[in-house]
Amino acid sequence: MKHVVRNAARFGIVSLFVLMTLNFVTPGMDRVGAAGLDEGILLAGLFGSSAKTPAPDFELQDLGGNSVKLSQFRGERPVMLYFWATWCPACITLKPHLVKVRERIPEKDMQILGINVGEGDSLQRVKRYQEGHPVPWPTLYDNGSKVARTYRVQGIPLFVLIDREGMIVYQGNDLPQDPLKLLK
Question: Which among 67, 74, 97 is positioned nearest to 84, based on CA atoms?
């Protein structure tokens, strides 16, 4: 009997961890998001509609305290947003693949912005983590998860590909193998 109880407890703990990792839910969302966009319009572009949707603008600070605004790249180059957290095993596993994307596609052809979702991570924790695991793109900290809520982040890692004109062309938990192909 102890064996059955012990296995049930292990299964419950593992299940909870998996649900937390795969279903990072941002609480408190109402029909209109933080950017003031109607949910139906935003969701149409983010979850499978072929119609492009404008990417909501945001301004966050990088780990050095510099402001980065999404709209600063509009008209200049596409942007890939990478929503992640230090406690997310899938995020850590996918990061080397994103580094390879960066190696294939230079910054002048596509900007990558790593956005720590803020939930479960303090700014100090993210800074410490990045010191030991540097990446070749800016890391932004989403204090209060406002940007994550605006982009309806339901699971991490989450990748959002935004074309040169500021339109969302892809959003999903899988890293696109060929982002430039999606941008054509």
Answer: 97
Residues with Cβ < 8 Å from 176, sequence gap 6 or more?
Answer: 159, 161, 170, 182
Phi-psi bin for 43: left (phi > 0), alpha (psi -120 to 50), beta? alpha
Is there a contact between 62 and 138 (Cβ–Cβ < 8 Å)? yes
Report which secondary-structure segment, H or E, holds 145: none
Q: Which residues of the chain have pLDDT under 70?
A: 1-51
- CA-based angle 63:91:74, to the nearest 5? 55
Distance separating the N- and C-terminal Cα atoms of the chain: 60
pTM for this structure?
0.74
What is the b/e burial string over 125-158, where b = at least 16 CB atoms within 10 angstroms of the residue's CB? ebeebbeeeebebbbbbbeebbbbbbbbbebbbb
- For residue 183, what are the contacts with CB-CB under 8 A and spacing of at least 6? 78, 110, 161, 163, 164, 169
Q: Can you list the domains of the chain with their CATH numbers?
A: 2-183 (3.40.30.10)
Q: Which residues pair with 68 in a beta bridge?
A: 60
